[in-house]
Task: structure prediction
Amino acid sequence: MAAFTDPTAQRLERIATGAEPHVVGPLLADALHDPRWLRPDVALISGGKSNLTYRVACDAGEVVLRRPPLGHVLPTAHDMVREHRVLRALEGTAVPVPRVLHLGRADGPLGVDFYVMERVVGHVCRNALPPGYADGSRERAAIGAALVDTLADLHAVDPAAVGLDDFGRPAGFVERQLRRWSRQWDASKTEGMPALDALRDELARTLPPARAAAIVHGDYRLDNTVLHPTAAGRLVAVLDWEMSTLGDPLTDLGTLLAYWSEEGDDAVRAAARVMAPVTAAPGFPTRAEIVSRYAARTGFDVSGIEWYEAFAYFKLAVVCQGIAARAAGGAMLGGGFEDAQRVVAPLVAAGRSVLGGR
Result:
């Protein structure tokens, strides 16, 4: 089972804290030029462990509102303006993204930066595929292929062509990423963890050379995409762009591999799962097949991909520690956060195992 997941893929909870209807309604009525938004129904979409995502509905339709979490926010995290910018830039490219409708700033009534986007209809598969959907191996293979191909398509987008040439600093990217997540660890940890420090030191010692630069998603995985409601193997949207920037595209591939499950996973990998092993079902590609397909589609040198996968495990460990710290402080809405602390050590162990196998 997953380390911390919700009972359903995308459960709605009638929690409006952080997006109170009497505040959000007038904002949307003004931004969308429709008074029907004045008295909306607002519900938290469960599943997100970082930014808060709400469904906002009225007679005019449904939209999605994204805002930072409540309480303490770590430096550089949860930047709604950046997320809005990359979504807008990618409209019209081969990368499917929701259409953004409005950007609100912190000096407004909500008190934080937030944005509103269209609600895309489809399946967000966090804990399982929907009953009767992609039951066959061929359909599941098509989902895996679409995930890889969409990632490759993202990395093929010319940042300058979509107005994102200043969206990040590709030079020295992986080194800065390692420093950044080390600082996040220092800001979130409640006690020492020598094994995590050892993984960080080994990652620093074996830092890969600079490679290609691309728009990177930062948290690319199955449940950050929306699958077509009826046609398995089609992605209709890629979600959760809060960590996107310009950098080494293999960091995205490493992240996908760290989240991926296979039927033959050993005990170390199984213990480090932070989501249900949906992709361990027959038909889904193996990690090796993912790497091979990505390399063929992009032409990138994928040697040393183990470093990137190990770094993804390190980053996940830090993220989970941050979730545990915020949940303990009451800054996380919804449920499913109880095991975040417990999974930190298994994630570190998986990272050390992957890196040791280079």
